[in-house]
Amino acid sequence: MERTAGILWHDQQQWRPLLVAFAISLMFHLLLFTAIDLGNRAGFWQFTPFGMLAKALGLDPGRLQMSKQLFQSPVSADLTTVSKAQEEEMPRLFVDVDPSQATDETPPNTAYYSPFNSLAANPDISRDTGTPKIDGAQDKVLKTKDTLRPVTQSQPLQPAQPPANQPEEESSTQETKQQVPPPVVAQPVKPVQPPQPPQAPGETLMARANPVMPKIDASNFFPTETGDSKQAHTRYRRVADALAARQINPYSALVGEKYKQDGGVRRYSISSSMDVRASPFGSYDARFIAAVQQCWYALLEEHRYSLDRMGKVVLEFRLTADGRITEMRVVESNVGEIFTTICELAVTKPAPYEKWPADLRKIVGTDYRDVRFTFYY
Length: 377
Hints:
single chain; mainly alpha; TolA/TonB C-terminal domain; 37% helix
C-alpha cells in the first residue's frame, strides 16, 4: 500500500512542472497578442524600424489589406457595398400617390416610395406634428385620395341589345371605330340592373383577371385633337398636371378609400399629401400591385364574396428578376383557409410578371426581392 502511494506522488511531481510551464506560456502569448493589438490600434508600430522599412518598400500593411480585399472579389464587394447602402436608404412601403400631388422636390427622410415624389401637406396649417392630417374613412391602407375602381384602358363597347341583322352590326362597329374616345363615352341605354351596394373592401367592379400584367399608357386617356378643339385645348407642362386636371389617375394601383390620419404640417395644399420618395421600383410595383389586385377581385367574384368574412392575410414571397414567384408562405391570416388560398392564387396566378429592367437589377444586386404583401377583407 505504501509503495502504491509513493508511485502516485512521484507521478504528480513529474506533471506539475509541465502544467506550470504551459500556464506561463499561455499567459505570455495572451500578453503578446494584446500588446500587438493595442499597438496596431494606437499606431505605435508605424514608427518602428520594420514599419519604416515596409513603407519605404511600398509594403504598407493597410494598403496590402485593402488590395487583398479588392483583388479577392471586386465586383461582389462593390455590389455588396452599394446594395447595403441603398438598402438602408431605400423606402420599403409602397404608397399610391396621385399625379396631382407630384413634386420635383424629394423629401429627405421617409419610409414610403412611389412612382412620384410628394411632400407632406394639408389644408389646415395651424398645427405642426410632422405628419399631415388626412380626412379619410379607413386606417389600414395608405392613400391620400379615393379610388373607387382601377383605371383601365378602353374596353369594347357593350350594346344594350343584340343587332337584328349583320349589316346593322357592321355599320355600328364602323361608327364606333370612327368615334373619338373621350374620357366619358356616351353609351346606348343599357338594361336596368338592380342597384349595387356601395363599394367596400373585397368587392369587385372588374371582370376576370388578365394574366398579363397591365401596362399603363397615358395617351389612351386623352381624346384626339381635331378642328376647334386644338384652339381651346389647354397646354400643360407635365402629363401629371393634365391627368390631374381631368381627375384621372392612371397610376393608381390601389382601389379603396382615403386614409384617415390625425396630425398637421405647415405646408399648405388643397388636398392632403404625404412625404413619399420617387423610386425606380415605383412604376414596376404599381403595375405589379394592380395585376395582383385585379386577379384577387376576380377570384372573389367567382367565389361570390359578400363581406361574410373580415380580416387580413399577410404573405411573404420572393419576386425573381424574370417575374416568377417563389418561396410563398403565409405570415398571418384570420380569414380561414379558403380566403387565404384566394390571396395566394391572386399572387401566383398572374405570374410570370414583367422582367425587371436592367437598372433595377443593378440596384438590388441580386436576382430576387423579398416582398411582404397584405390583403384586407
